[in-house]
## 1
Amino acid sequence: MPVATLEVSAPLRMLHWLYPVLLLGCAYLIIPIIGTNYLFEAILLPFLALSLAGVGLNILTGYAGQVSLGSAAFLAVGAFAAYNFNLRVEGLPLIGCIVLAGFAAAAIGIVFGLPSLRLKGFYLAVSTLAAQFFVQWALTKFNWFSDNSASGVIDAPLLSVAGVAFNGAVRRYLFSLTVVTLLTLFAYRLVSSQTGRNFIAVRDNEAAARIIGVPVLKTKLVAFAISSFIIGVAGVLWAFTYLRTVEPAGFNLDRSFQILFIIIIGGLASIRGAFFGAALLVVSPLILSRLGSFLLGDLFNSGVLEMSQRIVLGVLIILFLILEPDGLVSLWDRIRKRTIARLKKR
Amino acid sequence: MRIFNKLKRAAVAASLVLSVAVPAAHADEQYFPLQSYRVGPYAAGGTGFFGGFIDYLNLINTRDGGVNGVKLTWSEGETQYEVERGVEVYERLKNNPGVAAWNPLSVGIAYAMIDRITQDKVPLVTINHGRTDSTDGRVFPYVFPLLLNPYSETSGIVNYIASKEGGLDSLKGKKIAVLYHGSPYGKETIPIYELLAKKYGFELQQIEVPHPGNEQQAQWLTIRRAKPDYVVLRGWGVMNPVALKSAAKVGFPVDHIVGNVWSNSEEDAIPAGDAAKGYTAITTQASGAEYPVVKEIIKTLYDNGKGNLEDKSRIGSVYHNLGIVNGILNVEAIRIAQEKFGKRTLTGDEVRWGFEHLQLDPARVEALGAKDLFHSINVTWDNHEGNGYVTFQQWDGKKWNVVSDWIAPDWALLRPIIEKSAEAYAKEKGIKLRTSEDQVTATN
């Protein structure tokens, strides 16, 4: 029934814009007023950085279909590059450092994206592992990257843009939020542009894409570059606004898997999915841990509790994937549609 | 969808729980937030250390009714040795009333906390590890790498080897190989070994073992070719037993391998089996349960089923005793600060003052029931390490036996290097160096 579809889709389209605007308004105006320090430092700052990393990986894996296990390496490149640009280039403003760090990550991304011209699927995933191990090794091996600091752990500089210092938790949150919003908008525009359609064409059928004139090799490298750029900037946020310290060991394979899980659970080929996935992976362990120690804290020590939380989290993820293989984002859409349908019935 | 509704309900319940889970404030309590790790690759160290720490706090409460009547309290947050979790636990626990000091036992977490605790004015104790230049109290007022920083450890090991060879002069022409973990931690002492090699004229070869270190064939073949007089093991986790086993395979004598402070536990030696027999390692606190304070812990707590360690055979192990010593140092800092500020709940900055006057001579250590467990400590406002002495213990296949006197590292030699590094940090961060006047009073 085409008529009915039109009727539904008109308000839906309006909601399509209404939701993000409401959400942003809430994030900018309400949360800074009501949020506690804990909310910013332990939940929102890692959530924002990981969401952005998820957006970056989703462009590569979700849209362009190139599986990568090297996301943490690009996070590390971004973080260390921003640190070094800030340290070594006198008078370079913070924004400049972040953008240059993104480009540095993009450059490394292109280098490690080259195997994608020949390799596919699992083989490509394995070759991106090289990025993971090489970057971590290089950052540990060459002290220059950490300014010859004896222990190899570096401190993030103070954040300031045009003379405004972003030093409190709320200000760092607002800074992070702004960067994430801008890059997410960029990603939204990108995936509906010609380049974005090329990504999808390459993902769905490489041979067909080539026949209709999509430059496959260039498309793949562009996907690697843009994805790594975004992940690199996420790395800067992770290091500068959240942890405020950087060490190579923090960007290990576990982190790469975490980002991959974020997009799988949140929903592949969906920008919103990265945010859903990051929310689940950041918040649910905390809730489980607090709930567990509140309910059972007197009976077991924290080790036993932690182990059982891991099991619960694992089971939850498996359940989600079985009940909703398209990710949280499609679950959300279904709930929304159903609510609208119910409202319409009344 | 039913499952989703249930989950939603669970989430609502959880958020309700979160809002009430903060303990209420009591008068005269001093609180220790513990960023412990009982799960994950480093659980052996975490359970032992935090077990010993909690045991000692518990002993003070049970035996003495607290520190001058001020009860000690604590709660744990699991970090799995991961920096993000450590930060999360920090943010979660820091608002509890009467926080005395933070003791994360993790370099990474400690680094992420330096800015935060400096802002909050609460001490951060990194016993036997941490950032070396935080020894300089002029730049790091709230950070305390008590007893032994990595540089002092290096000097202590070289002094021990010298004592075995008949004095520092006999190091000339000797050959020492350092096998280090391929991580920032492992690499931290490279320049110090070089400095000491130049000073004493021994030949030095430093060899990296990539993390995690479960494959060391190549490194030990290099060592066999070079035939060093001693091998120093600067290891971590699985690297240590593998090193001992590989040494046995290439026929390097195990009694000429000297382990550093993170290669010195039962957990490092036992997995190597017979290959570890005769292995020597540095420590700041002797292991064993024969010290009066450990005996009291057994009598007061473990005999009444109140001990923290699940496995009683680990009582008196290296990590357990390190936790106990850490407990002694924290409690004594509070006691010293109470003398000045009053016998009540102290603020973080007041406890900081206590740590900066934490001077326990051997007589006081004996009075605390810890004679021979550790030597002494002498923290001042500008020396936050406190000149800890080290001793060496040898593994006999079942337990560690002390085989040396208490040895002093060459603090005077290391101090200028530490100051230089700390001053560079101060410059980068725009920190004004403290003077001795600044430490007198406590704010907040």
## 2
Amino acid sequence: MAFASIILLLVFSGAISLFELERVSHDTEEILRASKESTDLAHEMVNALNEQNDAIIEMAVIGGNLVDITPHYNRCVESIERLNVATERAQQRMVEIDSPTLTDSLIYYTAKINDLANSYINGDVHRTIAQDTLMLSTPHSWYVEYYKPEYVNVSRQITKFMTGSESTLGPDVNRLSHTARRAVTPVFISLVVMVVVVLMLHYFLGYYLIKPIIKINNSLGDYLRYRSPFDKEISCRDDIKSLRDRIALLIAKLK
Amino acid sequence: MRVPIVLRYIGMVMQFVAAFMLASAGVSMLNGYDSAYYPLLLSSFITALLGAFPLFFVEKDGEIKTKEGYAIVVGSWLVACIVGMFPYLIWGGEFTLINAWFESVSGFTTTGASILNDIEFLPRGLLFWRSSSAWIGGIGVVMFALVILPSMGKSRHMLSNVEMSTIAKDNFHYRSKVIFRILITIYLGLTITTTLALKYSGMTWFDAINHAMSSCSTCGFSTKNSSVAFWDSPLIEGIIMAAMTLSAIHFGVLYATFTGKHNNIFRSEVVRTFIIMMVVISLVIAVNLVTSGLYSTFGEAMRHASFQVVSLSTTTGFATADTNTWTPLAIVLLIFCSVICGCAGSSSGGMKVDRLLIASKVIRNRMKIQLHPNAIIRTKVDGMVQEENTQNLVMTFIVSYIMLTIIGTVIYAMFGCDLITSFTASVACLSNVGPGFGEIGSMSNFADLPVVLKLNSTLLMLIGRLEIFGFIQLLFIRSWK
């Protein structure tokens, strides 16, 4: 019974450890996947933003020297679209992990910079500049005064999104550490319990088997050497009790 | 002393503990196999396995001796606390080895002190186990096992002598078998009634069961971080107050009341003193809180004052307000409640009203004898003459309680706690109340205490739960053979 229970205990605790390890593996994968997703999104947003910024710089700052601005125009349109898509995906992801407010500022500033970029490629900026009779405004000054501050704001928001989304993984990481402990503790406790079981077994075997046999042996030895009476009251049970009684009977018959 | 016999009874207790762990695993299963399912299942298996060995090897024995009775009670409590920490330890989280031990001892001794910063983070299975340990502790692990296990014959009474305080034993006129039936009937009845009442006053089934178990065992474990204050409901507070008060009254007296017998709660001097004490202290605190401007209306002050007074007097430890912010007079009176606590023969801990009553009468009689040296004055409680031996025991208990409180306070202070935290932690643990004041106030916990102090707290809890003398017997273990 003792050995069967020890084996059962080991199998049980081993199975739990394996199950928890499976969970650790699953949780780690989840965390890594979530982290990669956030990093990819931030990477995509940064790329799109830089692409848009480059195109705007080419058109607004050094645009006068360009022969053909069409490629930059196309790049700008494409980057606006990419930034919109990436921001929407970021918002969707934050909704999925119950932190929808984390992307509020990002969406606001992205919409603002995209509006600015759109107003440039639509020609609204040029029309405004043309209406300026004092000729104080230029595309370059528009870039410095309006576009660049928004570019900085969006960059900041992307960084914020990056750190924010990583911090939302905190509880998952915490859970992972718990699961990892749950994978180890059962085996450790089972080992301690096994030691206790073995000690109990040792105690009970000693108390009910070994001690009575030693007492019977000593009492029989005393009888054989000194003819002192055999102790019929030795506390024992089952087969050992039967042995004691038979020895007592044998001694009685020999008399 | 026959060690195998002691081990056999401890083994029985372990089977019961294992059954409750299995029930908690069932709760986990019902909650979509939450993260406590496997820890509870494995703990249940380990506990049942360890308890099965003595049952397998040792045969039944009709009679047990006094020393064996002591060993069974103390051993069962210690073993229950050890196996009770397995679910916490395996589950992990905030439960390090010492924290798991603390939470387990706190549950089984019905103290209700916690090391958890975020209770609501715990899975439901583990929360249920936490309340279960308190519930088992409330009735007494050993007594609980004895009621259900039918094969113990004469040995029942021997254990009841140890389990219940001497006074509780004196108050019982029923045969031991009847005593156990009474206890389990009252305890189960109270728990079921409280569960239903809490459910129909707005709690979920889960919260209602947990709070009923916690109230009836006078433990004070809650499923919410803000304890009973979470519901902010006078009705729920009223129900819990009633459950706590009834659980702190001698179960024999409660049984007599429900069965229409003569010696009921309306005639009991001890119960009368207990109720009057709580009412007067609540009124004084309420007036004090209103005059000091902490509460705008008397009704609101009385609501919070009475809940806190009942909670501490019954050694439960639930909270609806942060008592750390209350006035010095209110704090002193609440500490007094934590020292005196409920009646003997109940699930509450502490010094007990019975002892306070006997001690005050002994002092009064001593003064009378000073005036009339030849007078023969008897000390009576509830119409019964208290023998000199009982009086001596009461006085010895009170002195031992004070000495242990002082020693406990010194140990807390040695490790950097302030005076109010040290003293109230010592009282709260020794009386099995749970919350104290200062760093361990009603809205905080024992999490930040150093390991040594957590161990000191658990030792005080065990000493208090075993009515001091039950534990002190362990010191004379050499004379047991």
